[in-house]
Design brief:
The chain is mainly β. It is built from no helices and eight strands.
């Protein structure tokens, strides 16, 4: 089983109105480790951002961060240093308080056995 390093990138993440942008979903029958998650504010105004993890086997969605402020042109390190394990079909999703205002990048180690 090979370990694959990947980046999942989403631009213009969803507005936080209950609908989140799926940034990465672990493939079926694979375990993935999230190494880092960053959100960049691409506007000239402050925004808030939220990130969730969905555990499909437990049917639970939990916040990693909710309504965290990001200054104009700034960035937020949501995951940095700690690791989060995603089992098969689990996902990480993100949303911002304004449309077309943020980009999200997630660094992953995929297919860990």
């Amino acid at each position: 089983m090979a370990n694959n390093f990947k980046n999942a990138v989403k631009t213009n993440i969803a507005i936080d109105s209950g609908t989140y942008t799926t940034v990465y979903a672990s493939p079926a029958s694979k375990v993935s480790i999230i190494l880092e998650c960053d959100i960049a504010n691409t506007t000239a105004a402050a925004i808030d951002a939220s990130v969730t993890i969905t555990d499909t086997s437990a049917s639970v969605t939990s916040y990693i961060v909710k309504d965290a402020p990001i200054p104009a042109g700034g960035a937020l390190k949501v995951i940095s240093g700690q690791k989060i394990v995603l089992e098969a079909l689990d996902s990480i999703k993100a949303a911002a308080s304004a449309g077309s205002s943020a980009d999200c990048i997630v660094s992953i180690l995929e297919d860990v056995g």
